Amino acid sequence: MVKMMLGDFGVGKSELISQFKKIALSKDYVIASFQVNDGFRFNKIDDLYYAIMHNLFVKHHPEGKTSFNDLFEIWLNNLQDSPFPDRKRLEVNTVCQALSQYNMNFARAFLSFMRARIQRNPEMQNVTTSWLTGEKQIPYELKQKYGLTGYVDKTNTIDFLKAFSKLLTLLDYKGLIIFVDELDLILNYRSDLRLNAYQNLKQLIDLQELEHTLFYFSGTKELIENTDKGINTLQSLSQRLNFTRAESLDPTNKRQPIMLLDPLPQETLMVLGRRIVNLYQKAYPDATLKVDDDLLMTCIPKDHITRLFITQVIAQLDSQHK
Q1: CATH value at residue 29
Q2: Same structural domain for residues 185 and 203?
Q3: Cα(87)–Cα(110) distance, rounded to whole angstroms?
Q4: Is residue 160 included in any domain, yes or no?
Q5: What are phi and psi of 2, to 5 degrees?
Q6: C-alpha span between 278 and 273 (Å, rounded)
Q7: Which site among 21, 46, 56, 234 is 20 to 30 Å from 277 CA-CA?
Q8: Do 138 and 73 belong to one domain?
Q9: pTM, whole model, 2 decimals?
Q10: Residue 217: what are its φ and ψ, rounded to 5°?
């Protein structure tokens, strides 16, 4: 499934996505999280795979990013603790057989990776890990040594992604959720690169056989409001997103591909402002604050942007505390 959450700058997209991530991790999903920027350009589908594989997170590694190796810790520990000697070989072979249905080279590389883990061969493990996670600059002699063929490119990226998603479910994870922020930076691409990016997005939407995987894109409303560079410039993409114009989107329909995040209404901002004042008073009990609803009302920006409102409220509190 592909979802797209759009909202103005400062409206609260990042905070909402942060909560989504916490929920996903708590429910045993593997998540990937990154932004469209100079380090990742969406016009190359193989760059997408590389970004996913190098920005993984799981709940049993709360300190930060998870390496590809870390994903197998629980599974390998269970296999090594098994009272049945043949279980390790049987389960590894079963997984590799399932992966071979998507890409034979991926399955072979994963088998080599598992052998390296079991045999504690660091060179073999590093080489196979690099290959499986999309590294292209692996010396030919090392690939030949460990039976690796080619590398991840635009012709096999989708197969690799399918194999990886399947691998996660075989390891008893619930699935893969990929959060990609600042999608609107595509609008700054050269026209041909922007078209490639939209084509890649369309390709992801069409991946019916990619199970247990959710792509969650976020960005500003300019993606649908910009008639010269937005998603409506590729008709086949806008059709798949069921999008014709911004006014046609139903903000209450959570099943539609595009969801709009609107600014908080005035009464909600007022509640938020009062809570900020209470927190501030607890943090600085010696401060004499004169903040009433009238003052909070003056902090509400014309467009109701949450971030600007919070900044204004705290600025007022700081000025009084000083």
Answers
A1: 3.40.50.300
A2: yes
A3: 17
A4: no
A5: -120, 125
A6: 9
A7: 21
A8: yes
A9: 0.86
A10: -95, 145
Residue finishing a domain among 243, 262, 281? 262
The Cα–Cα gap between 322 and 319 comes to: 5
Residue 163 within a domain = no
Domain containing residue 113: 68-154
Residue type at 260 in one-letter notation? L
Angstrom distance (rounded) from CA 28 to CA 281 = 38
Classify residue 194: in a domain, yes or no.
yes
75 and 221 co-located in one domain: no
- What length is written for the chain? 322
**Is 247 a member of any domain?**
yes
Contacts of residue 254, Cβ cutoff 8 Å, sequence gap at least 6? none
Q: Are residues 237 and 301 in the same domain?
A: no
Overall number of domains in the chain: 3
Cα separation of 185 and 196, whole Å?
14
The angle formed by the CA atoms of residues 2, 29 and 237, to the nearest 5 degrees, is: 5
Q: Tell me: do 73 and 132 sit in the same domain.
A: yes
Same domain? 273 vs 258: no
Domain boundary among the residues 262, 277, 308 is at 262
Domain co-membership, 186 together with 199: yes
Same domain? 53 vs 184: yes
- Counting beta carbons within 10 angstroms of the beta carbon of residue 212, is it exposed (0 to 12), middle (13 to 18) or buried (19 or more)? middle
